[in-house]
Design a protein that fits this description.
Chain lengths: ~90, ~950
Amino acid sequence: MLNIPCPHCGPRSEYEFQFGGEPATRPIPASEVSDAQWSDYLYARTNIKGRNRELWCHSGGCGQWFLMERDTVTHEIFRTETIGSGTIGA
Amino acid sequence: MTGTRIPAIGLIDRGQKLSFRWQGETLTGFAGDTLASALLANGVRVVGRSFKYHRPRGIFAAGAEEPNAILDVWHNSQNDPNARATLVPLQDGMSARAISGWPSLNFDAFQGLDLLHRFLPAGFYYKTFMAPDWHRYEPNIRRMAGLGTAQKTPDTRHYETRHAQVDVLVIGAGPAGLAAARAAAAGGRSVMLVDENPQFGGSLLWGDATINGQIGTAWARDTTASLAASGAQLLPNTTAFAYYDQNTIGLMEHRSHAASGWAEDRLWSVLAAEVVLATGAIERPLVFPNNDRPGVMLASAVLRYLRQYGVLVGKSVVLTTNNDSAYETATALLAAGGQVAVADVRAEPGPVANAAQAAGARVYAGSVVLNTGGLGGIAWADIGPADATSQRNATSRIGCDIVASSGGWTPVVHLFSQSGGKLRWDETLSAFLPNTGRQAHQLAGSMAGWQSLAECLASGHKAGGSHGEAPVTAIARLPTPLQPYWHVPITGARQWLDLQNDVTVKDVGLAARENFQSVEHLKRYTTLGMATDQGKTSNVNGLAVMAELTGRTIPETGTTTFRMPYTPVSLGAMAGMRHGDLYAPKRQLPAQSEHDAAGALMREYGGWMRPACYPLPGETEAQAVQREARLVRTNGGLFDGSSLGKIEVFGADAAKFLNLIYYNEVANLKPGRLRYVLLLRETGIIYDDGVIARVAEDRYLLSPSSSHTAGVLAMLELWHQTEYPSMDVAFHDVTAAWATIAICGPRVRDILATLATDIDLSDAALPHMAMAHGRIMGIQARVARVSFTGERSYEISVTAGHGAALWRHLLAQGPTPYGIESLSILRGEKGYILIGTDTDGLTMPDDLGMSGPLRAKKVDFVGKRSLTTPDGARPDRRQFVGLLPEQPGFVPMVGTHAITDGPTRRSLGWITTAAHSPTLGRSFALGMIEGGRAHMGETVTLFDRGKTSRATICSPVFHDVEGAKLHG
């Protein structure tokens, strides 16, 4: 059980959270994107072994999605932040 | 029968006699006994038959490491099919049986297998039972191996799950753990102390110790009492079985003393700022020929049974050792009136051995046990030189009833290793010790390699933060060093490494020769350490033998990964209260009581308990469904649709946002109007359908399918928060706030006329696909003209508390109540799809013939781009069509394939819905057929489990094709 620091609610049990995977940037305008680019956006993820940037939702709490920087091997959580605050990864 | 109870020794309560049964025979023990100590006190020798060779086996150890005494234990009509007798506190009325041995424990029909041992080497099963398939042999082999049988009746025990947070969690309440807990508590931190035994004290319960001038047991008792007084949480009978990330520890608390129904077992998840690992060490045996007979034990276990339980396991004991620790057992046995001989592999055993000799033990230096003998137990042991290469090198045969050994101590590094810590091999102790840790923990006592009591107490005090006065004990003199000794260098005789899985030194030799030399291969090929004891007494010995055979050092050979759980955890405890009705609580309709009164057959649909149909007395479900589906069209129907989702969407940007989400155009919807819509995933696949109502310019009401409501809400939130965060829009799930009852059919307007309402229900004010708000019977209400049956239909919603009253009022007007199964026929006759039934994870809107929005809608709605990919535009996509079976009485199974004719048959698609229609008087079906719309009127072959039939591809609308009845 991990303790995840929700940027709105503070540290809460992993059971209250939902994993949203690596964030993908939606190509805009979609109509001008190639099939390959669109397919990458839909399906291709880096799946890094190590320090990674992920979307999580505090679904059992405030219901807000946020970004988390986490090590996928050790499960160490480096930081979390609200969407749009823009310091994690990118 | 050799074990006896010695008066006046031990921590058992001799005033409290407990009666229990073993193999049907009634025996007695005392409060404070374990099942194992009580069996030994009653002279029980054989407790099981070995896994592979069916050799008799006896109790070997006194703790969690026990490999042999795995028993089927019943208490309070509840069963533990594979209980470790050494960890089961004896209870009055308990009943235990061996899990192996057929027809009886003392005569095993398969014991002849032992004579065939030459032909049953490691890997025998893998090599022999190959053709045609292992699974053919597996059940018989498993039965022969003898494992406990799970009870057939439900487990009525009450399990609980608990969560806790503490400053310091101390694991192990031996001297080091008690010292750590004491110091941490003195430092003002919140402390939790756990131990797998019923009593705190660890080795103090059987060791010879004085701390702060008190006897060890008294110090343990007083320290425990002062910890309790300081507010520390004390959990005896509790195993820390797992060390997870972020200092989270899994605890299994056995509350066998609890009365039935009062949380017999509790599973804890503890988040600790700091963990103190004081998990102790397990003695490992010396390996010698015939070291598996009942009566061969660990030297420390013999000591523990004597000192803690007052059980002298044998009157004449041969000890064999390579270190000093067995001598405490020797002197304790002598003091209790036993006879003792010690075979010590060391040429110069040193002062501790001399003291034992002075007390009356015969000590054989440079010697080891070369053989044991006796019928169903031990009658003698041969002693000979430690470097003997033949059993004929034996120099003395000693009559005895117990042979106990010590090969050194293995620190319990399981939890440390699970936490991500790395180990190092210590030559002096011949043991793996913790090296570098990864989490917030302190190490204390013998698990960290400390040997003397003084060092264990000091390390514990330090681990607890060194608060308060350190406990004081006499400094012991330095022990004579251990001499590594892994097995007797004799090749002919069998020497057991793993007693539970019957793995011998020869098996490891075979694995080495066949190149299964990696420690992970060795484990799987020979099954060494793979039994329920996880090799607690055998892994290091097996590893050392492999190292020796392959000319490598032990650290080069490596160690296998320690995995949770440390000891088995029952599935019941894992489930906790999440079973039965609480596993996935079902939602109930507001008018549930009315459906029960109407005799509804209730069934779960997407998490809701809903009426499947309302069978009349004597009617089958199929008959009821046919009657209801017919009467809805002729008489009118009444349906509880309260489980349909209701999500309110508000905000200045509500229209703009929803238009970016939904497949269909929703921004141009007029207030008061409804539209049928599809919701896609970004992949273009249909996720849900439903009806969307525009309540006002800035307000919508969505009606997703019952089982998708939570998913749709989550999707709206995700898109709003991550893609369109600046839009002014908010969502609110109000599903549970409203009861929605639908009435439909020819008499519907007459029925509506009985409702007192201020809502104008005329067609001019409320046409099909419109919604109006007002009051019904004085209650807040809304009415929507929307139909899932094809009949003129009104969905009436009132606040949930009035659902039952509304249902009662409408039912009294005479419509036919109908359930989900009947609705399935009605909607099928109209070709109305059911998402997830008629569609699957590949279905796109055009496959259903709904391609308008893709062409007309300009905004970049979710999934739009995916519809124009090559896959989305493939001409051979399966399309939604109707199928009329050639035989009108034949209803094909859902999932029946349509196939090509000709020599190479290929699937063209399948049937998704099929039923007999009482209105059509014949069967009909819906399905997804490759390029189906281009083949209207053609016949195809249906194929179901070898049988074929024919059907005609047609429009999916079978009833009222013009839709006149919606307005009729």
